Design the sequence.
């Protein structure tokens, strides 16, 4: 099977973990601080706060900005459920704005339509490794006095007009094993606001600045030094990983560009797309699920991100969400992703393109 994703862990990561284990400091310690400083420098922000998952990063970022009961947060319905679930964790309510047809990212025009007196924040999702339209979104936020919390969990190293995702508003990243870089499990918050960074640090550690003195309600969201040690090594490799993803995506696009049955990924000319996923779209009424089944049977891994938009998930329907978001709903029945991760070979890419050309000729 050619896997849809594969974490790349080398001897450097293994050695880094062994060093931490031998040190005896395996919970949050100096390695976490070093990773925070290095990641902030990489993104171009003044601060970074490491936590134990991308979901924790979203949750803590929202709380650090004071989002809570009675507030509304506008976000995309076409993403992983953690984005909007994190809003619910705070007592606020997610409000879904439909996506753009080409990039699958939130449509700024639809954001404007959803703003009310209760709106406090926007969470744009940089889906599949391509930035949302951050120029327009930041203008909307300024005009309406709204907070921007970027869900950059799939966009490590991606840029919009040469500025990295996670540096426009408050950024949130995931280091799950299939992401462009990993810490095993983990996440991080990036910000230029000292007060937000300090509050996020308290939230991740039971509301405490000083051990056993608790100023606010907090959680245990801490990253371990083991995870941070992996992250420090991976951070030195992520640009190379991204270059491989971009190269593989380009090769696959060129190999598939004559197939009439699929639409290839659209790259906004203002963006550096880092291809966390290479997502195509079935056209002409073909069955996405049948094509995916054939590919899987022939040993080609695929992923469907996402087969059901969030507002159509049973839990959200039970909560009273009944939006009509036709672009997201149509995309969910037509998209699937193909492998372009750094571990894939040219032979693998040829197998993928030849098989698809045969199926859809």
Sequence:
């Amino acid at each position: 099977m050619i896997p849809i994703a594969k974490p790349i862990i080398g001897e450097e990561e293994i050695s880094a973990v062994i060093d931490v284990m031998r040190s005896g400091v395996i919970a949050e310690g100096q390695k976490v601080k070093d990773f925070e400083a290095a990641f902030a420098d990489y993104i171009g922000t003044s601060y970074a706060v490491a936590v134990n998952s991308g979901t924790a990063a979203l949750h803590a970022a929202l709380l650090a900005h004071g989002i809570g009961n009675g507030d509304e947060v506008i976000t995309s319905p076409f993403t992983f459920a953690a984005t909007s679930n994190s809003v619910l964790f705070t007592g606020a309510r997610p409000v879904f704005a439909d996506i753009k047809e080409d990039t699958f990212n939130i449509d700024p025009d639809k954001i404007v339509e959803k703003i009310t007196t209760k709106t406090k924040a926007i969470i744009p999702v940089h889906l599949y490794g391509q930035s949302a339209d951050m120029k327009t979104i930041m203008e909307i936020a300024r005009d309406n006095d709204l907070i921007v919390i970027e869900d950059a969990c799939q966009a490590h190293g991606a840029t919009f007009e040469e500025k990295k995702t996670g540096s426009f508003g408050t950024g949130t990243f995931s280091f799950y094993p299939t992401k462009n870089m990993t810490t095993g499990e983990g996440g991080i918050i990036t910000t230029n606001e000292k007060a937000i960074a300090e509050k996020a640090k308290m939230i991740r550690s039971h509301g405490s600045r000083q051990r056993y003195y608790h100023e606010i309600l907090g959680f245990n969201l801490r990253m371990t030094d083991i995870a941070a040690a992996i992250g420090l090594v991976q951070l030195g490799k992520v640009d190379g990983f991204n270059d491989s993803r971009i190269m593989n995506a380009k090769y696959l696009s060129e190999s598939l560009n004559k197939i009439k049955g699929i639409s290839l990924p659209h790259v906004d000319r203002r963006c550096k797309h880092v291809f966390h996923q290479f997502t195509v779209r079935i056209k002409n009424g073909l069955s996405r699920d049948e094509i995916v089944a054939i590919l899987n049977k022939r040993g080609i891994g695929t992923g469907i991100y996402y087969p059901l938009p969030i507002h159509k998930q049973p839990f959200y329907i039970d909560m009273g969400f009944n939006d009509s978001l036709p672009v997201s709903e149509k995309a969910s029945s037509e998209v699937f992703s193909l492998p372009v991760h750094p571990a894939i070979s040219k032979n693998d890419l040829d197998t993928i393109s030849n098989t698809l050309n045969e199926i859809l000729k």
The chain is about 40% helix and 15% strand. The first strand starts at residue 47 and ends at 51. The CA atoms of residues 155 and 303 lie 17 Å apart.
